[in-house]
Design brief:
This protein has 162 residues and is of the alpha+beta class. Helix content is 41%, strand content 15%. The chain has six helices and four strands; from the N terminus they run βααααββααβ. β2 and β3 form a beta hairpin. It starts with 7 loop residues before the first strand and ends with a strand.
Length: 162
């Protein structure tokens, strides 16, 4: 009596799989970052264009179209906002990607967490939208909502008879 086993090997192209996962991670981060941008720009009002201009660098890094406007009679401050910010996507290591946003635009920082009324925090006339804006928290919630739906794709596994 003879026994003839049927053996198979399993092959995974690890380099190709890692590249595919990195691409998927980038795409999902771009979706979540776009949700963050939609949330924050819907909360922060437009006057001189400075506040919305702080989001331009981040928007560009993920292919999100953002063209800050300003109110007709407001001073032109879009460049001020652009220069007073940092934003983009960082990849500190394999399988890690994150968005970042920083600003030192003092009025935006103050208005995010404080109640601003004329005479407080540099407010002269009054604000279009009551503060605090809490746009950072709203953006984070939008980012988490989208990114929590992220599902890894299944790896491609090849099986061969030996």
């Amino acid at each position: 009596m003879s026994f003839r086993p049927k053996l198979r090997t399993v092959e995974i192209d690890l380099a190709a799989e890692i590249a595919q996962l990195e691409k998927q991670l980038e795409d999902e981060n771009a979706k979540a970052t776009s949700a963050w941008l939609l949330a924050v720009t819907s909360i922060v009002p437009v006057w001189s264009g400075a506040s919305h201009s702080t989001f331009v660098k981040l928007a560009r890094s993920v292919g999100f179209y953002l063209s800050p406007a300003k109110v007709k009679d407001a001073p032109e401050r879009r460049l001020l906002g652009f220069l007073a910010s940092r934003g983009g996507v960082e990849k500190p290591g394999p399988g890690i990607i994150r968005m970042f946003y920083q600003t030192n635009l003092r009025y935006l920082i103050f208005n995010n967490d404080n109640i601003a009324v004329p005479g407080v925090g540099g407010v002269i006339y009054g604000l279009i939208r009551p503060t605090p804006y809490k746009f950072i928290e709203a953006g984070a919630a939008a980012y988490v909502k989208v990114s929590s739906k992220f599902k890894l794709r299944r790896p491609k596994i090849k099986s061969k008879k030996i």
